[in-house]
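Incident log, structure service

09:12 report received: a user says their structure output differs between two submissions of the same chain.
09:20 pulled the input from the user's history:
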Amino acid sequence: MKIAEVCELIEQTAPLALQENYDNAGLLIGDRHAEVKGVLLTIDVTEPVIDEAVVKGCNLIVAHHPLIFKGLKRITGKNEVERCVVKAIKNDVAIYAAHTNMDNAQEGVNRKIADLLGLKDAVVLQPMSGLLLKLVTFVPKLHYIRVRDALFAAGAGVIGDYDACSYSSEGNGTFRAGESAHPFVGQVNVLHTELEIRMEMILPVYLKNKITSALIHSHPYEEPAYDFVPLANEWSRVGAGMIGCLEQPIDELTFLRQLKDIFNARVVRHTACTGRKITKVAVCGGAGSSFLNDAIAQEADAFISGDFKYHEFFDAENRILIADIGHYESEQFTKDIFYEIITKKIANFAVRISEINTNPINYL
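09:34 re-ran on a clean worker, output below:
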């Protein structure tokens, strides 16, 4: 098993195209073609984590937070990031990060939080846009089914909980083959008219190359005509946060105590309890205060996240219960997501969850 194969496995759940433009997810250090001896899973990459990987014989670290986030102009060991880079390279340890792409993924960080809370019918809180394309192509009528099914198999035509979605209409296509062409139908230097099916279907932008390949290999024409049209539509399956409902309404204080237990939080910072019952809950792993207004707009009773600033608590204005459980605490189970993804498909090398608590925040 190559490092690249493990990376690709994670990216099936959290494609790199889902990361925010400020992020730095992906393989940060190491040779993609190297053999994997063992994988260590962590939230953060620190010097003790790299030491742990070496001791346990793991030459690949999969982390949630990227070790290299800002540009490095020098690597002299003056801070922990630089020391980690040096130590990883010296010990031939590759480092991979799945950060905001895992936050925004349908089965990523926020789905894990929603599942831990037992939220029903959970959906994305703020869907992403600009990630969908519409494919338009033209196929001879007798070959329509073959091409359509090849595109479906490559991942095109998925809308929400529905797959195999497409639209087709008949029309006449014209073309004239040049001297060096080898036309499937028609003759060289003769204008030809062919009954064709115009076919349209939606796809995520990160599948464009795969679907182009499927189209070209299944289409009978030497030069198939096709267009990819960018769409401004929101993609309801991916994006920031999630929102869903508890099985039964509970009072605020009981809800906060449950949060503390579920996430093993030393402290839960929250707005004042007002006597409301908590039923509809919005969540966002990490630093999610910027999505508070989305939670309020969708009439959530509570919003769970981390890294709320002092003045941001005022923004609740008694409309919602804010529960800040901590950045690390909200993302700690990301290691379990990595473990489930990798071990489901691969069983021929060790996959270990780091035993080191990398949370830089301590409480007295």
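09:41 both user submissions now match this output. Likely a transient worker issue. Closing.
09:42 reviewer note: Residues 334-345 form the longest helix (12 residues). The longest strand covers residues 234-251.
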